[in-house]
Amino acid sequence: MAIPGNFLSTTTESVDPNTSGWVAKTNCTISLGSGGRNGDGVLAVRSVASGEMQARTVSSYAVTPWTEYHAFCDASGATVPERIGIRWLNSANAEISITWSLTTASASATWHRIAVGGEAPGTAARAQVVVSSTPAAGAVFSYYENFFFGFPITTTGNLFGFNAEASEIDATAWFNEVNCTVARQAPMVSWPVDYYLAGGHVIAMTASANGNASMRSTDRPDATPGVEYVAYCYLNPPTSGSVTWVELRFYDSGGSQIQATRSTLAAPATGWYREYASAVAPAGTASCSIAAGIDTATTGQVLRVDGAVVTTAPVLRAGSVLPYADASFEQGIAGWTVVSGVATITRSTPWGTYFFDGAYAGTVTSTTATTSVIRSAKFPLAAGSGGMDFRTEVYSNVSAGGWTLTRGVRWYDAANTDLGLTSGSSSAIPTPAWWLLGNTFTAPANATQAAIEFTVTATSGSSVWRIDRLALWQSLPLTDIEAHDDTASITLTLRELTVGEYITIYRVTPDGSHTLVRGAGGLISLTAITSDQMIIEDYEAPIGVEVSYYIELRATISSAPGFRASDGVTLTAGDIDWCWLKDPGEPQRNAQFTVVIPPAWKRSIAAASYRVRGRRNPVVLSDVRGGLEADLTVRTHTDEEAAALHWLLDSGHTLLWQVVPGVHESDLYVTVGDVSLPRAVPLADEAWREWTLPLTQVDMPVTVGVAGSAGRTWQDVLTGYATWQDVLDAYATWEDVLFDRRIGG
């Protein structure tokens, strides 16, 4: 599995099928070992004698001075702990220095992550990755695999920089706030082979004396009032009974703290547990931070933290009005209450025992076989919601006893007047395992707020019902389709998808043909669903022809599909003398041009003629006849149009040539050969150019995905840089900023 953004080759990364990417540097020999997770091969480093042994990459990699870089790998060794370093070289390939990680706290034969981050020195031109351990004798092995070197891998959307999230550079991103000291450590932690956001270093807070202890981030990124944020990190408590927590804090423009929301870990043991805290930024918010701590700590107790993130709260269901805290129960029961009856509602405990989302679930318990009413807080609805249909859903699990359930929504007007309950019929809650329960309700005409309400009846004493990932949203069509004539594209919106299922999308034309539609990973065929809503922009739909879409949905790759079908829509044909040239993978390059001379197609064939003595006719051997080839002449009228065509052709990608019906041509995927672009009239002030584009028909590209930023925001771009000028210095073009193609990457 290739690690995204890796400067290293696949062979160097995975040590498969050989060790050709590596060389012994000091006091060791290297060989190909087995038992790896990123492919079977591993780098086996064997000491020649006692003392430090080092191995390094054969190749060096271009770096930019004063830029942060990140290196990691997975290590295994029962005898000695390890470390990893970035070896900086100057333009003459001479060593300047090595930025080392801390040495892992203990040796372990279990695969564990070692990592380091560092800024390239001012004279650095290239870099290598180095691994090291220090055995007390010869013939001692250390094993390594799953290598990465490149720009830091961070959580998309994180308001913190690389060091605050991963602590791979130093401990300066954290401040010892109350009764503690703060330092970096490198404990032996085993992470999944394809989890790249956790590294080798963690922040360790040590209680200086008995009592409460806490630390906070020194980073205070900007935050916006009214926006819902979530803070999370991995906590490693000193004991399972320790009261450890994470806190999301907001500050005003003067730096004064104005709100803090805490989430306390219910630790099952002393492992690593991700804990979430979420809140809406209050009025006056200018910045935010994350904090962590131990209540009633004893002297010397250590709380370790890794993977600190503050970002906008996740969208569990597109359009849902429930905040993350009320939908997920990660930090408690939020606004949920028992309106009547003996039932109680709490957060499940401990961490990871019951959950559908995150690590906790809401837990409704009734000690008697009686009826209770459970209600959420009130949530504002969008303007004009009166009379509209709303959907509710809840992930449900009966873990003890049995229940019957009536689901409903209680409505309120702007004055908080109760407008009554709209509910469905009562039915038994299904069991076992997790079930998704949904309903649709119509809001009263003057409704501006709503609360989810459950009427539950336990069928026996000590019944327990778990709920998670709740949502309430305005019901919209499951499938929407819209044509955009200005870009010759169609937008397909799919709602209420099930995350984890698989989707295949076909474009259907009047002749009945079904063609796969392109997404970010290539053609959308048995693609895993990662969000309940998908928006597909189809730039390859034919022009002037009615198009619809057929969608197959499968619970597993091998299961029978369910399906949806969209309405039909037609892109306006437009002028017969114009054509579109499109880049399927980078549609921002697409443009429309005037056709001066249409193609005069030919179809070549590879054939050999053999004259046999004594025969009148030759023997001809031939391959299949090739596709279409011809020159297309198009005109640009302005320098801007010429620049657009240059930009389109620069990539050398396969293009889609599209025309309108009536010109007796079909849409074709083509490559473009050498291009000439003389002026229409040979005068210095003539802007018109007539481009001759040699076209060769090729197959539709299958694996090319529609390039996108995968959720990156301008905040993500700026987080790693001090100023926007530094951003401009790191990227050649704004397009490279969009797709995170840094100079030297």
Unreliable segments of 5+ consecutive residues: none
What is the number of strand segments?
53
In helices, the fraction of residues equals under 10%
Instruction: Describe the main β-sheet briefly.
Output: 7 strands, antiparallel
Q: What separation lies between the terminal Cα atoms?
A: 19 Å
The radius of gyration computed from the alpha-carbon positions, rounded to a whole number of angstroms, is 31 Å
Mean pLDDT: 94
Structural class, judged by helices and strands? Answer: mainly beta
Number of helices: 7
Percent of residues in β-strands: 35-45%
Oligomeric state of the chains in view: single chain
Task: Note the overall shape.
Answer: globular
Q: Key features?
A:
single chain, 745 residues, mainly beta, seven-stranded antiparallel sheet, six-stranded antiparallel sheet, 7 helices, 53 strands, globular
The gist of it:
The chain is built from 7 helices and 53 strands. By secondary structure, the chain is mostly beta strands.
Description:
The protein has 745 residues and is mainly β. The chain is 6% helix and 45% strand. It has seven helices and 53 strands. Strands 22, 25, 26, 28, 29, 30 and 32 form a seven-stranded antiparallel beta sheet that branches. Strands 1, 4, 5, 7, 8 and 10 form a six-stranded antiparallel beta sheet that branches. Strand 38 (518-519) and strand 39 form a beta hairpin. The longest helix is centred in the last third of the chain and has 12 residues, at 639-650. The two termini are 19 Å apart. The model has no long low-confidence stretch (mean pLDDT 94).
